[in-house]
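Page 37, top half.
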Amino acid sequence: MRTLILAAAVAMAVSAGADAQTAYPSRPVTMVVPFAAGGPTDVVARLFAQNMSRTLGQQVVVENVAGAAGSLGVSRVARAAPDGHTLLMGHMGTQIANMILYDNLTYDSRTDLEPVSLVLNVSQVLVTKKAMPVDSFAQFADFLKRNQATISYATAGVGSGSHIGGMLVQSAIGVKNEMIGYRGTGPAMNDLVAGHVDWMADQITNAVPQIRAGTIRAIAVLGDRRNPSLPDVPTTAEAGMAGANSNIWHAVYGPKGMPAPVVEAVLKAVREALADETVKARLVDLGGDLPPAEAMGPAALRRHMDEELARWTPIIRSVAEKTTLQ
């Protein structure tokens, strides 16, 4: 009997050890942001990471891996062990636009990553340096037409959300300005504030603080409805540019092959972050739209990606040629 009790105790200990080894997360989780610190994706990631740390019981650390229009960071996650300890905060640019723009992209966002959930939708706003002598979209369009050879606009690189928005604006007006690319929207905004570039199509989450501070000028929200965080800024639809909607969505991914229980654990942490009143208030204050419950989860994100790829392919190819990553 004593031998049986001892054997049972050993078996229980082994089982407990195995469970401990497979428990998730067993160490800090890295959330890769594929752009420089200070940009809109970085801001969103840090808000989620702080709250998700409490739910997961391990610290979620944001790491900025900038370069090549965000593809360096995405590729790093795609190559990581699929154990849930490396996650990605991707967005429309890294997951959709890059797929359309680049011939030599090192990942396929549909097959090399495990979708977890959509987390935020952010409209873009057309902003200019403070010294630009325009007060409306009509004046802005006229100014660009008369000075297009000397005008430059800032982006976080080819394929970034700011690049996509910038292409839409130029296409609608019928001009072509010089694009100045940066390693993230944060550095791009810094140069806009300093007056080194003339305009930018930026995510509202990144632009609102500077607009409120009066360091840049807001011209129009790229959409068909005004944003609550910028109630006095008209839309491009109001200016007669119907259809020029640029919505930059953000979503969480892991490496392909991440086990279903781990995906569910990360999704639970995302849902709890979005249910937190402090997180919600901050995201809304920055101009973000929270996804409804039915738009969350892996299946919904897969469908959303398919729809976005179909929508953006003809738009992007009409204003930009396929290129190669530098």
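Page 37, bottom half:
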Amino acid sequence: MVVGVAGKTCAGKNLVSRTIAGQGFYHVDVDQLGHIALENQKEKLFKTFGPGIRRHDGSVDRKALGTIVFSSPEEKRKLEAIVHPEMVNMVEDIIEERQNVVVDAAILFEMKLDRLCDLVFWVEAPSIVRFFRGLKRDNVGAWALFKRIWAQRKMNPNDFSSNADIFTISNIGSRKKTADKVVKILEKRK
């Protein structure tokens, strides 16, 4: 079984993914695969986005790259065209090697990874809750976090056609309550 986990920033995707992994699923963090893809494609990235994203050690400065791509939809599309195909290939390879996999990807639908999933958990929480979670968790300023949340305001799983069954999980209660909801759905699906 392949389970996808998606949702907006700071909604609780990590909690849901860890809960599923605790049920015997191999956890695939697509963000981590993205870091690998960035390094594998760094020469293309330097050529596309300029020397300002090159760190002194020759690696990609993800913060500088993020500033560029989160301020322009066109720049974001350029980045995605470079790294997403490699990331999708990595996920496909992992799924081929494993039996039960949880694919944790904020933009699961945009990357069309949902086509690999039997079911998808869409994790939700109100914007204000996500904002305060992000201030606690992320090392970015309030304005950068606000812009990220604002950019995702229209993300909705209903905007994508998917063959996977989609379950919406509201993550505003306790961690245990959210985890219990996830386990209950998984048990029905096994």
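Margin note: Strands lie at 2-7, 26-29, 101-104, 119-124, 165-170.
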